[in-house]
Specification:
The protein is an alpha/beta fold. It has one domain: Aminopeptidase (3-Layer(aba) Sandwich). The protein is built from six helices and eight strands, in the order βαβαββββααβαβα. The strands form two sheets. It has a six-stranded mixed sheet, with helices on both faces. A two-stranded antiparallel sheet has the order 5-6. Helix 1 links the parallel strand 1 and strand 2. Helix 3 crosses helix 6. The longest helix has 21 residues. The radius of gyration is 16 Å and the shape is globular. The two termini are 23 Å apart. One of its GO terms (biological process) is proteolysis. Pfam families: Peptidase_C15. Keywords: Cytoplasm, Hydrolase, Protease, Thiol protease.
């Protein structure tokens, strides 16, 4: 399958941090991989998943490397938020203002960082409407957000937007008490289905 893959999708989830000793984002990404293995529809699309430590240094070092290594057609970053009640697609990310400590008690050095806001160039409104039409099948609702939280979720989103905003998406997922990992994975699968079909059309 990998040899004949017509394109590669890169999906990341985060490792543990704070009270999230098991991170719902990574559990959902692992479930997504299982769904993908059993999918006939996209047997020629290679799915690569990566677990990312909640570390600013790791993200700034490794995200460009992952882009270079896999040359993905779509990059979907996934992170957990205790505030969201459904799958939440973030629309933009800021270059600075990251003053919450990561798992190594570090923040990025923003001394020479110019203030910038980058937006995804994926049509997220259309994506949202499309996924919500099939809500009964996936059991997952999707909404849009303008506040990615100025922590590692927004930070990873910003790093990828710097590389290729036409291919980058970030989705916040609820914790286990709202959606099961399988439910969340179904929603992520529907999002990727829409993006891949759009790729094929273009």
């Amino acid at each position: 399958m990998d040899v004949n893959a017509k394109c590669t999708i890169l999906v990341t989830g985060f490792g543990p941090f704070s009270t999230h000793t098991v991170n719902a984002s990574w559990e959902a990404v692992k479930e997504l991989q299982e769904l993908w293995k059993n999918s006939v529809e996209f047997s020629d699309v290679k799915l690569v998943i990566e677990k990312i430590p909640v570390s600013y240094d790791y993200v700034s070092d490794h995200i460009p490397q992952l882009w270079k290594k896999h040359n993905p057609s779509i990059v979907l970053h996934v992170g957990v938020s205790h505030e969201v009640k459904s799958l939440t697609i973030e629309q933009h990310a800021y270059s600075n203002g990251y003053n919450r400590f990561d798992i190594y008690n570090k923040c990025p050095n923003e001394t020479n960082v110019e203030y910038k806001v980058l937006k995804t160039e994926i049509d997220v409104k259309e994506l949202c409407n499309n996924v919500n039409k099939n809500f009964e099948k996936s059991g997952c609702k999707v909404c849009l957000s303008d506040n990615a939280g100025r922590y590692l979720c927004e930070y990873i989103f910003y790093q990828s937007l710097c590389i290729e905003p036409t291919k980058t998406l970030f989705v916040h997922v609820p914790d286990f008490n709202k959606y099961s990992s399988k439910q969340t994975a179904n929603g992520l699968y529907k999002i990727l289905c829409y993006l891949i079909r759009n790729l094929e059309l273009s």
